[in-house]
């Protein structure tokens, strides 16, 4: 049973920014079941589990549910025993034209499988936490030096000898409580540079750069399979209105990297990996003026559905539910959360009419820059507050329209502030 505190933790970020909290999504997920069923049955519990790999492009407008979808997929992957890494792509910290920075972000957000229902209090991310989790799982079985040595020697099949040596050294350092060696190795695994002196002492020859990043990602996937996890799910989120790359030169590099990543998913050196790349506008990604457009476009055709599980695109704007029905179901799920969070009961008739009028008005903004779903969420939660504090009366269409316009202005101002921060 969901507690008041848990319900508040789910609703607060939705009301504040319209973006989802990382956990509790199952309480207000609507319309994604057809996609999730294919992903789970065809991939996570079958093809990827057997050592295959796959790439999916997730398309949704700004505020259209991309991040929500990726979090739901991550929770699904955790239940199947996958390690995951959710990576927000940004122009400054993690642009896709720099695979070395992408690798660093993957390692910074790496997480072992968690129970999503208990993760809010136990969830830790990053390769450091991952190494400790791996060590804790195996420590009790390795009660002698011989068993330790045999276990570490059994970690084979990693493409990068430096990566293989680093993970063995990290495990052994934890076993021997050698914090100095562990910190140096963890630093290297994070993608941070080590001095040549330290690398020579550790026997690690490679450095992370643009030429080695893809090999490091492949080695990461191979390592995760070798230590007993089902596989690795990577979730790349172009979370802003535009892409994380700006100039034509950067875009060419990013598209070439994306093409290479897609091609790697058909490679036996990339076992047990499923990659999701979420974009706000596929047209911004596939610019026909660039020479890589046609090659990439051919790799990204076909919509994922039950009758076409090999389809690459997952279009969140084209669900089986009509927009009105989608928002209506979403509104009622949010209302149930709100009642728990505030120990309050809505008048059923007033609630139904309020959700209906908000859904109708939010759909009018369907082709605006702000996703109408995010607009609906922010607006309806504000309406719930008013119903609780000012009396249970269905708002008029004019009142709802004005409330939504206020939310549009607030979201636009927020986007401008975020753009200014990225620029400076």
Strand content: 5-15%
The strand count comes to 6
Provide the succession of SSEs.
HHEHEHEHHHHHHHEHEHHEHHHH
Instruction: Quickly give the structural class.
Output: alpha/beta
Between the first and last Cα atoms, what is the distance in angstroms? 45 Å
Strand order of the largest sheet: 3-2-4-5-1-6
Average of per-residue pLDDT values? 90
Summarize the structure.
The chain is α/β, with parallel strands linked by helices and 424 residues long. It has helices spanning 4-17, 33-47, 66-79, 99-108, 119-122, 127-138, 145-153, 161-176, 179-189, 196-202, 213-226, 248-264, 282-285, 293-299, 323-342, 348-363, 372-390, 397-423; strands at 53-59, 83-88, 110-111, 232-237, 273-279, 313-315. It folds into 2 domains: 47-317, no CATH class; 323-423, no CATH class.
What does this structure look like?
- By secondary structure, the protein is an alpha/beta fold.
- The protein has 2 domains: 271 residues, no CATH class; 101 residues, no CATH class.
- It has a 6-stranded mixed sheet, with helices on both faces.
- α12 runs parallel beside α14 and α16 crosses α18.
């Amino acid at each position: 049973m969901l507690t008041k505190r848990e319900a508040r933790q789910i609703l607060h970020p939705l009301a504040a920014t319209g973006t989802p909290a990382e956990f509790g999504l199952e309480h207000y997920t609507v319309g994604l079941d057809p996609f999730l069923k294919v992903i789970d049955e065809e991939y996570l519990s079958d093809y990827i589990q057997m050592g295959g790999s796959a790439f999916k492009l997730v398309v949704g407008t700004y505020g259209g549910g991309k991040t929500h979808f990726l979090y739901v997929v991550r929770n699904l992957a955790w239940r199947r025993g996958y390690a995951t890494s959710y990576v927000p792509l940004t122009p400054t910290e993690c642009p896709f034209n720099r695979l070395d920075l992408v690798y660093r972000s993957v390692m910074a957000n790496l997480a072992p499988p968690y129970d999503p229902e208990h993760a809010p209090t136990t969830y830790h991310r990053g390769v450091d936490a991952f190494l400790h989790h791996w060590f804790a799982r195996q420590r009790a079985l390795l009660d002698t030096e011989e068993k330790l040595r045999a276990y570490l020697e059994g970690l084979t099949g990693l493409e990068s000898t430096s990566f293989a040596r680093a993970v063995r050294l990290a495990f052994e350092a934890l076993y021997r409580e050698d914090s100095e060696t562990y910190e140096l190795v963890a630093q290297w695994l994070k993608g941070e540079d080590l001095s040549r002196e330290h690398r020579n002492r550790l026997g690690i020859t490679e450095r992370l750069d643009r030429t080695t990043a893809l090999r490091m990602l492949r080695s990461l996937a191979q390592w995760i399979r070798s230590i007993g996890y089902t596989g690795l799910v990577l979730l790349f989120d172009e979370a802003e209105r535009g892409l994380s790359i700006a100039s034509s030169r950067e875009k060419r590099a990013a598209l070439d990297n994306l093409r290479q990543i897609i091609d790697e998913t058909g490679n036996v050196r990339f076992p047990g990996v499923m990659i999701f790349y979420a974009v706000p506008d596929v047209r911004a990604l596939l610019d026909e003026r660039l020479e890589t457009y046609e090659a990439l476009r051919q790799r990204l055709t076909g919509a994922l559905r039950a009758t076409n599980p090999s389809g690459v695109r997952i279009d969140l704007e084209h669900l089986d539910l009509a927009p009105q029905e989608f928002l209506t179901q979403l509104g009622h799920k949010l209302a149930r959360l709100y009642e728990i969070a505030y120990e309050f009961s809505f008048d059923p008739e007033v609630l139904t009419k309020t959700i209906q009028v908000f859904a109708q008005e939010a759909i009018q903004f369907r082709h605006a820059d702000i996703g109408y779903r995010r607009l609906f969420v922010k607006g309806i939660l504000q309406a719930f507050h008013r119903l609780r504090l000012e009396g249970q009366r269905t708002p008029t269409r004019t009142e709802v329209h004005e409330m939504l316009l206020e939310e549009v202005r607030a979201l636009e101002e927020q986007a401008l502030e975020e753009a200014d921060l990225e620029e400076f």
